[in-house]
Amino acid sequence: MNGRINTFKMISLPKPLLFGSFAAVGCLIGAIVGEALLNVTQAPALPPVSHELILLIDSSGSMEGKKLEEVKLAAIKFIKRRQSSFNNFGVISFGNVASEIANFNTDLISMEEKINNLKSGGGTPMAQALKLAISKFSSNSELKSILIFTDGKPNEEEASKVAAELVRKANINIVAVATDDADTLLLNKVTADPLLVFSTSLGNFDSAFQLAEKAIYERDIITSSPIAVAESSLFLTSLRIGGWTILLALGIALALIISQNLYLRRRYLTVSEFLMAVVSCIIIGLIAGGVGQLLYGLIPENPNLDIFSRIIAWSILGALLGRGVAFFIPNLKAIPVMISGGIGGAIAASGFLSAAYIFADIPARFLGAIILGFAIGVMVGITEYVKKAWLIVHWGPKDSSIINLGDESILVGSSNKAHVYLPKSQNFPAEMGTITFVEGEISFHNNATGKKQVLRDGNKWNIGTVMIEVRALEEE
Questions:
Q1: What residues make up the domain containing 76?
Q2: I want to staple 30 with a disulfide (CB 3.0 to 4.6 A). Which of 48, 247, 270, 354 is the partner?
Q3: pLDDT tens, position by position, 59-72
């Protein structure tokens, strides 16, 4: 067939579904190739070191009810996520008094039981809890950390600051998770770094505990779980994520170009289209992935901002991809398609975040890629429905395509660039003519005769086996 496409059942799908299906597959292929890139460029794993961490859990009277139950669950999940032969955990509660409820030798089952048996009552003796924690660390541990969870002000503020200073002098790191009612200004001084204080609210304790891990473990916008890796610069991490994004962008772009060509019964893909897609996607991928990762790495640590930064990053990717695709689809308006692509990216980010709670990172990324491609493809297809004038190209009795009219002229002929393709085998010229839409007037410019024919809504004419029908909305 000389690379030309006849009728496939899939082409009869509504254009949004056609674009969405192709883009989903293309993006998934890009993500699969991207996994190889991520594996090759992953920073080397740090050699395991012994790490002792003590959780200081506020069990004062104000913690009674849902707050105490939620922090119990968050603390247990935190320990299970980080459980290994190199990590040892202890737990101290502070309410009526500060008391050790689990030490470094307590097994996981017993520790979970002891945490679940926590009761609320009394004040907030944070200073006492910090001093008790210092005495519980062993001398042979290479890393030592304290994670404080609190919902209020300590009984003695100055004593808490003094105790925290003693902790830091003992080379013990302090990280804090604080509810809306906690004194975050004081906790900034306790940790000696505002970026080590993670604010949270009821219903989001587990998210805040996960963000606290980011103080020790590196993460990025396409990873949901912390992985111990050697420290790398934000620039290199952004470049790595940019490379992954390039592959996703290229998968979507090529899929949408191929689906558009199928829709118009043209060749699957020309060399010029491929090269243009590659160059465009390198730019799009580096901007979307790089800027998104920079945003993710620079914003303050906060559970809600963490989710927001991911959505923004994927939305940037969607918007830029939508703009890039507009170069290959005639008269597709840039701003509407960028908005549509951005919406598609936001939907994909939500899908990735939801999948990350159920699956591991790789399946979540694959699912996110499928959603990203499908959502952008559908939104681009929907955007094409916004038009003032268009052509319906009838290839057969039940086989047609719609081409929007606008600033770009529609080429009719046997050229690879023709929007309305006429078979070269039937001796049609490469550029038979163009159809324009200027100042509300639709015209056909015949290259052979040099004549111009004004077309109106409902006009139809046959060219070989193809019938072209003109449609236009009435001017208000």
A1: 51-213
A2: 247
A3: 999 999 999 999 99
